[in-house]
Amino acid sequence: MTAPGAAYASPSPPSSPAEPTPPSDASLEKVRKEIEKLYHDAGVATDAYNAAEEKADKQSEQIVKLAKDIAKGEAKLKKLKARAGAAARAQYRGGGLPDEARLMLSDDPGQFLDGAGRMRQGEKATKGMLTELGRTQDDLRIYAKDATARWKKLEANRKAKAASKKKIKKKIAAAEKLESRLEKKERDRLRELEEDAALKRQSAWVGSGVLKDIDGKATPQGRKAVEFATAQIGKPYVWGAEGPGAYDCSGLTSKAWAKAGRGIPRTSQEQWKQLPRIDVKNMRPGDLIIYHSDASHVGMYLGDGAIVHAPRPGRDVTIAGAGSMKILGVVRPDK
Questions:
Q1: Active-site positions?
Q2: What b/e string do you get for 61-85 counting C-beta neighbours within 10 Å, with b at 16 or more?
Q3: CA separation for the pair 132, 51 (Å, rounded)
Q4: pLDDT, tens digit, for every residue of 139-193?
């Protein structure tokens, strides 16, 4: 018999490192909502940026007009001063003797009467010239004060624009960072969850029966706006852009209606404030649907419960369900 020896366990194969557990749909849904909020905040900042830019453009035009008015006023003032100087020199050459005194010393009654008439005319002309001179100087002071005030507003808008730009970039960068942490299959699943959430909202909206009352027909202008907007499908969303290669949401709608011959406000918030509002049941193609409680997004109604819109950074101009986002209300550019 052989002596018993020490017992050893059979060596087990080396274990491979555990694969990371893919995030669940619940955690991806949380990421989706966070990304959605970041892009929503970027949209609000984009509206503020666009509004500041629009104001700055108008203020620049007004400043240019004021500069032209000031140049005209200065030229007019120069001429008036030259006329006043000529009158003063003429009086000096006449020995400084007042016209009234020279007339009183005249022995010729005809000359006296003729001279008296000319003197009255001269006095009237001189008085008119001095009045015009004073008015021109007052106008120039007002123009200069107005130009200074507009320059200050322009500078304030420039700062507001810069602050909005900084906020937009920060929010978009944060959203992109969140997405970049995901694997490709997770990003694909995130996109599916995004589409599922939109479909769920659209289904609820359609299920409410709202579409059965919507049968409005587009006006000729409305058709032109729709044709332009749908021709932009596939072009990327870029904040602050209004074509031709890229658009943000209100850049698309404002440009489409401009092409249809109707100028409308540049931002979704101003479109909501300034354009006539109508009931959802009375919608027709070409109308603008304003979304979210802060009016930070807009799409153009196409009919059959669909809109064309520029969704957000990282997405292209596309067709979506009109009820896929929370509707604030509807406005009509061509009412």
A1: 249, 297, 309
A2: eebeebeebbeebeebbeebeeeee
A3: 41
A4: 777 877 877 887 788 888 888 888 988 999 999 999 999 888 888 999 899 889 9
